[in-house]
Amino acid sequence: MAQTEKKGGLLRKSSASKKPLKEKVVLMYDEIFTTEDPSKCNPRFWEELFLMKVNLEYLEGKLEALDGEELMKIKDNINCLFQHCIQALGEEHPIRVVNALQTLCALIRGVHQKNKSTSGFDIINMLVGFDKAELCMKNLMESLDSLLCAEGSESLKSLCLKLLLCLVTVTDNISQNTILEYVMINSIFEAILQILSSPLSRREHGYDAVVLLALLVNYRKYEVVNPYIVKLSIVDDEATLNGMGLVITQALSEYNRQYKDKEEEHQSGFFSALTNMVGSMFIADADEKISVQTNEAILLALYEAVHLNRNFITVLAQSHPEMGLMTTPTSPIPTTPVTPLGTTPPSSDVISSAELPLDADVQTSNLLITFLKYSSIVMQDTKDEHRLHSGKLCLIILTCIAEDQYANAFLHDDNMNFRVNLHRMPMRHRKKAADKNLPCRPLVCAVLDLMVEFIVTHMMKEFPMDLYVRCIQIVHKLLCYQKKCRVRLHYTWRELWSALINLLKFLMSNETVLLAKHNIFTLALMVVNLFNMFITYGDTFLPTPSSYDELYYEIIRMHQNFDNLYSMVLRLSTNAGQWKEPASKVTHALVNIRAIINHFNPKIESYAAVNHISQLSEDQVLEVVRSNYDTLTLKLQDGLDQYERYSEQHKEAAFFKELVRSISINVRKNLAFNTLSQELLLKEFSTIS
Can you supply one Gene Ontology CC term for this chain's record (predicted)? Predict the structure, then answer.
């Protein structure tokens, strides 16, 4: 007996003598793609259509095969199909609803594909017709809202979210997607919040819900009042905010785990053995191969929550067991399709203490720690465009956190100590720090460690100037809080001072190359003013008097770098070139650093001569410093503890437009609607008649 094969909507016998037979659903699609009304000959046409398993590939392919003129000829049938899909969403039989949802996805994607050509027809008119658009879209959004909020099938909720993601990402630039006007008018914001506040729904659909919300918030955000922005900014329900935080934590933790697994796999492999044999000359190249796709969508969601909602700041510090160390509860496999590494939605939930009690033997973590670990990975390699965008967004999020009074309060809280294992870039001149030796410290120490790590590891030909500026600004904002609140942080400040001095040295060594692309004096001025901040106000926030002495020791020890910087900026500020003004600002900013060097150096030389010592020890230099403070004269510099607050619209609009475009393309590419087999659906909806 000849076997039957199915391919591209065709049923054919393996015998070559027989003509291919089309599936019934494909024959019905063909009827829709004629100019005749398909229900004329068969009054039950639409009723029967939604009982048939959708052939997405055939339907989308059919739409793509038509040119604009041909599509306009069958516009009435397309409108009719769209309207019947919406009607089917209200049906009692879940199979009809599933098929209607999948058909809507195919229709929206197929019609939008045609719009990329020069045919110039209006998408809304093509899908629903202008005269019925408002009512149809209202009914569609209400049906989706009802399905998302209902107690019913998780598979239906999954498809509803996928349809909405399809609707939002069908154009690269979501602000040009006119259909979204109806999503703004008929809000599904409350339905998204409901998903995030319920542990079961969040486990199944939290990832898609958070990504959807992040995208909707970015629709024409600089042009009109976006209701999703307004509503997100005033959410104060603890369960909802914590739910959103848990979804973001899970996604970032998954990325961190995948990276760690790849790193361990990489280190235990052949290449590791080879590098041990020939030395560490290839270590940088080896590390570049450890690549996990970044997750800008979830990072955007974190940014919008931190930036728009002050109540979300409390979620950053919400403690839970560290995800890599805990046993997650068993949960159903999510219906979300597997996406590339780093973008995989969470497969299980990490919940509040009520659901997962904290164990005294398990290291506790929180969203901020998970985010700092994520940042330490993506900020290692900024040569890749996606990682560069991710790194920039990480620094923007940290900027928002560093400006927030409440966030600073818990960052600097001595009673909230954590062991934060940041990823450090392999470098030939330093050993890898052992995880177990990490001390428990206030969270601000981990933020400063991350900034120091970035400063030290990115002095390269393709100099990421923008990221360096943001990095120095974050340090400055944290110091401003410490000065204002007189927080004496026990931190290894020398590491920061050393990193900053080495940065100045790098800028001077590469003056010609860097000046061709960047105004390096802006960055140099910021670095010099950080030192001025320590010099002027250090006695109010450095942990001990000896820390202040050590600051002077470092400035004196590295005086050659400051002398060289002064010579460079003096040379450029006395010339009539384009750098005259920015260079002269650095010249003026160096006045106190030069006063310290010029005051103490002769005293140190004199001490060495009197005591017949050729090389003074650190303690001897510190003794000279302590005994000669009284005769040092410094100038009071204004505005050192002032900064310009972060503003997205005026400075970052272009970055976010490009970022959202990239996310939209990526989400659309990874979206799958046919992941639910008909067998699984029939099993779930076993009550169907």
Answer: membrane
Confidence of residue 384 (pLDDT cuts 50, 70, 90): confident
Q: Exposed, middle or buried by CB within 10 Å (0-12, 13-18, 19+), for 451?
A: buried
Contact 68, 114 (CB under 8 A): yes
What's the pLDDT tens digit per position in 429-473? 656 655 557 789 999 999 999 999 999 999 998 999 999 999 999
Count Cβ atoms within 10 A of the Cβ of residue 181 and give its class: 0-12 exposed, 13-18 middle, 19 or more buried.
Answer: middle
**Dist CA 414 CA 440 (whole Å):** 10
Question: Contact, 377 vs 258, CB < 8 A?
Answer: no
pLDDT 10s digits, 564-578: 999 999 999 988 788
Q: Based on the number of CB atoms within 10 Å of its own CB, is 247 exposed (0-12), middle (13-18) or buried (19 or more)?
A: buried
**Euclidean distance between CA atoms 687 and 111, whole angstroms:** 35
588-642 tens-digit pLDDT: 999 999 999 999 999 999 999 998 888 899 999 999 999 999 999 999 999 999 9
Region of residue 9 (left: phi > 0; alpha: psi -120 to 50; beta: else): left
Amino acid letter, residue 646: Y
Angstrom distance (rounded) from CA 365 to CA 370: 7
Q: Which residue has the tokens 């089309």?
A: 22
Cα dist from 432 to 257, 425, 428, 456, whole Å? 19, 9, 10, 15
Q: Which residues have CB under 8 Å from 446's CB, separation 6+? A: 369, 372, 418, 420, 422
* Tokens (6 digits) for 643: 């900064």
Can you say how many angstroms the Cα of residue 198 is from the centroid of all Cα atoms in its chain?
24
Q: Is 122 exposed, middle or buried (0-12, 13-18, 19+ CB in 10 A)?
A: exposed
Question: Where are the chain's structural domains?
Answer: 24-186+658-688, 223-265+293-320+364-426+437-463, 492-648
Residue 566: CB atoms within 10 A of its CB come to: 18
Residues counted in the chain: 689
Token couple for 199:
């542990």
| Helix, strand, or coil (residue 573) | helix
Bridge partners (DSSP) of residue 10 are: 7, 22
Residues 6+ positions from 629 with CB-CB distance below 8 Å: none
> Which residue type does 211 have?
V
Of the candidates 208, 504, 155, 530, which has an alpha carbon nearest to the alpha carbon of residue 339? 208
Sign of torsion over alpha carbons 374, 376, 382, 388? positive
Residue for token pair 């398909």: 38
Phi, psi (deg, nearest 5) at residue 333: -70, 130
* Euclidean distance between the first and the last CA atom of the chain, given in angstroms as a whole number: 32
